[in-house]
């Protein structure tokens, strides 16, 4: 597939898009941030002035073309400005996960050779200082929040606003140089470098060009008719490709407003105040929102709960059809209208999703029941399938063709093919340039013709052209009887229940499937309070006999649902245990984006897996944990193992390859 060599509408970089936006709608809001309870706003013209001052300050500080500038902090306009300012001076922004431990940051900063760091506050500054002896190219750090930093050595430490002030003071000296660098930016030049989540090893630096970002933003915006009047809430990690394409790529292409919440704690309040029209959240956010709804309904009065259950049952039966414009009977329409008045609209308003015109979920598969719940409310939630290496978009769901069991059709400009072993391949204008300093992995992932291996197993439906993803190719296997083993499918069934936060299913090349369960402390804690069950810790609550009974009921209900799929009916969970701790990114068990690191979990808890399969009714274990301050410790527990009832079926065997 021939890549576009011409810049979209002659706009070859994000800074060029910024200048166009200033010219076309300079007085329209571009960024908002809630601070001290009040929304602050910047127009495109004001944002461009802030970016120019920072870019001049970076040149004054010694930033050269080709330098890497790490960005560490939560979603704030200043960090989006930092990325565009870095691009403006010919440098490469590298956003880093703000909740990463110092050692994780050290790997990324050293691997990319960052000479400069823009950090949010004392916490992030301290992390970099802690590992700076490992960073051989690090020179200067810029911080946004000065609180607690007054007595630090400022030889290489600079306040954000001071860099801007110095840049503004030196504008006569450096403006011509800034204009030269900005004008020099081309479609093939690097726009950003984003690191993968590292589910299978060390994170890889994914180099994305201006072409990758702008073509992906242009095509996806046209697909969903996005325009300058959209409102988005930027709350997902800036180091994640999804936030970059929505809050930088599409925002600059369309000219819409990016809203930044005051803090993670106020995110839901801020979401309701903004009422975004274009919304993205990974499955875990939708799962958490649904859990909170269910907790509240458990505490509701009898009449209110009856109304909720009655109208939600009706919504599930006709809501998706109404949303897709399909024929629905008059009585059902009238009943839905009443439900909208008393249940659906108030619920959407509580969730902050009343104005959503286009909503997306991606990152990993979402449970069909969770997906259908939101669509039944009339929220136009769709799935997209993407990767960092694709600049997000591989497949998308057109309006009127949204289904819970597929991830849609190829996104505009994307080609798909399925390899003989079932692995999905794609190529598009968004295909990444390379893995930084890793030619071998680049060659393994992207062939000379531009086809990229996704690592996921799936197939394209011949009638609809929709792609169905089964699971990660490396995770899909067979049970000992030859039937298909797809753990993610089962895990999503289990995670539909508000009381289950995470599940890890085992069974490849074994006779039966077994599972680890993490309970949701908020949901189960609320349930325990209503049932007069006292507890002092997650571990104590997880081991309570009544919690075990409740989770057993969920597992057995999930088994009934799994049994209905002839291809995957062999994946019913026969035995399970509830882990004594939550899987944690600090312990390396999940990624910073919430994906389970299966191999690490299997190795770390091998004794528990052995007990599941050898018929034990309980197992004692000791596990190393990492506390928030970085200290190591250990927790010991004796875990109960329970059998779960399964539905007798004859599973469909997988044809030999």
Number of domains: 3
Order of adjacent strands in the largest pleated sheet: 4-3-5-6-7
Helicity range: 25-40%
CATH architecture of the largest domain: 3-Layer(aba) Sandwich
* The CATH top-level class label of the largest domain: Alpha Beta
Which fold name is given in CATH as the topology of the largest domain? Rossmann fold
The CATH homologous superfamily of the largest domain is termed ANL, N-terminal domain
Counted beta strands: 29
Task: State the secondary-structure class.
Answer: alpha/beta
Calculate the terminal CA-CA distance, rounded to whole Å. Answer: 29 Å
What is the molecular shape? globular
Average pLDDT, all residues: 91
The number of helical elements comes to: 21
Low-confidence stretches: 1-5
Radius of gyration: 25 Å
Report on the architecture of this protein.
39% of the residues lie in helices and 22% in strands. By secondary structure, the protein is an alpha/beta fold. Helix 1 (14-25) packs across helix 9, helix 2 crosses helix 3 and helix 11 (283-298) packs parallel to helix 17. The longest helix is centred in the middle third of the chain and has 22 residues, at 302-323.
Quick summary:
The chain folds into three domains: 8-277, Rossmann fold (3-Layer(aba) Sandwich); 283-354 and 362-472, ANL, N-terminal domain (Rossmann fold), CATH 3.40.50.12780; 477-643, GMP Synthetase, Chain A, domain 3. It is 39% helix and 22% strand.
